[in-house]
Amino acid sequence: MQPTVKKEDGRHPISFEQIAQACDKVRKNQGAAGIDGMTWEDLDKNRAPLLYKLWNRMTSGSYFPVATLEIEIPKAGGGKRKLGVPTLLDRIAQQVVVEVIEEETEKQFHPDSYGYRPNRSAHDAIAKCRQRGGRYEWVIDPDIKGFFDNINHELLMKAVERFTSEKWILMYVRRWLKAPIQKAEGNIEQRTKGTPQGGVISPVLANMFLHFAIDKWMEKNYSSIPLERYADDVIVHCASLVQAQWILKQITERLNECGLELNNKKTRIVKCQKWGSNEKYPNKSFDFLGYQFKPRKARNKEGNMIGVFSPAISPKAVVRIRGWIRESKVFKQTNQTLMEMGKKIEKQTRGWINYYGKFRSSELSKLFDPMNKQIEKWYAKKHKQNAIESKKRIKQIATTHSYLFVHWYRGFTYFQN
User: Across-strand partners of 74?
Assistant: First the structure.
């Protein structure tokens, strides 16, 4: 007999309206079908009965998630990242719990935790990192090895219990953690640790775990050492090399206590020195959330050249996006107009500018000069012109019709020679 789902005060915790609202929120993110093959089109055709059935099961305690579907996606630095994709209905169920538990987690989470939280963003974390990089000369850039795949379930449940005592939430979190995964090869594998990236609740669980593993631990033991954390991406600021070496040793031991370990090949201590400095420390840059922090030139308010240590789009991000531009079929289809081409890449281009243009936007020329080259080649092929004629014509069009492409409208109309 399944337990009845009730709040501690005996009231019913889940309404059908919560299920419907969770469905709408999950739907905005779209996403692939899970192991059952149900797409959003399939769900829309039978929305009311499917959601009612989910509501009935969640409120009666008879809801059990099915296996997550493992898919592999390319990593920016090479290799592949494995994601565990729950079914649409399981994602909706997870969203219901996220909405309920978020009210409590937001009261407790650390102010320097930025990932997957309302009213916080990666840009907030980067801005804070830039600010502190000007005050602290040393940075620890730790890389946690396979974090999402290696979270200890017992320790994670202890963390969750610190945020809520609602038995129905704890019951469903345990079931999601134990849900098996269908591997890319087709076999079903039981999970004894980790929470799959791809689940709606996984980022919240990761934040709960690292809240105690890192955030509160640092606050209690090393309150003068600031950090920024976005999920398992962490940057720690130190006043000296000796301090950085000591804190890194303590973090390593702390993570080992929590069943995690650092990737020694990727974990580094970095000197935040400004451009023009002659110091010889080998590590002078680090990547954080798609941006690279390193010594750069800048001009002050008086127009004089000065040295800074600041962020801009990372080389890895540049390589990844330029690869997309190079391989995209959009720039090879001569049966379209420039306006049609611009519409097809509008979403991607706007996303790149909005994210990577927040800091040192001039660096985006590394993306849009190659894109302009592709547009030139397309024009030359479509109108049977040579490269010089095509370049001249596209320059004219970019000047008079900048609305055709988002990056033109935002000022990226200059071209490489």
Answer: 80
Count how many Cα atoms sit within 13 Å of the Cα of residue 337 in the half-sphere of its side chain.
5
d(CA 215, CA 207): 10
- C-alpha to C-alpha distance for 220 and 208, rounded to whole angstroms: 17
Global pTM? 0.91
Residue 258 class from Cβ within 10 Å (0-12 exposed, 13-18 middle, 19+ buried)? Answer: buried
Residues 68, 181: contact at Cβ < 8 Å? Answer: yes
Neighbours of 208 (CB within 10 A): 25
Angle at 344 between CA 340 and CA 347, to 5 degrees: 135
User: What pLDDT shows up at residue 100?
Assistant: 93
Q: Show the tokens assigned to 377.
A: 């080649």
- Report the C-alpha gap between 16 and 117 in whole angstroms: 25
Taking the CA atoms of 403, 408, 413 and 415 in sequence, report the sign of the dihedral they define. negative
Strands 181-182 and 68-74: parallel
**For 91-126, what is each residue's pLDDT tens digit?**
999 999 999 999 899 999 999 999 999 999 999 999
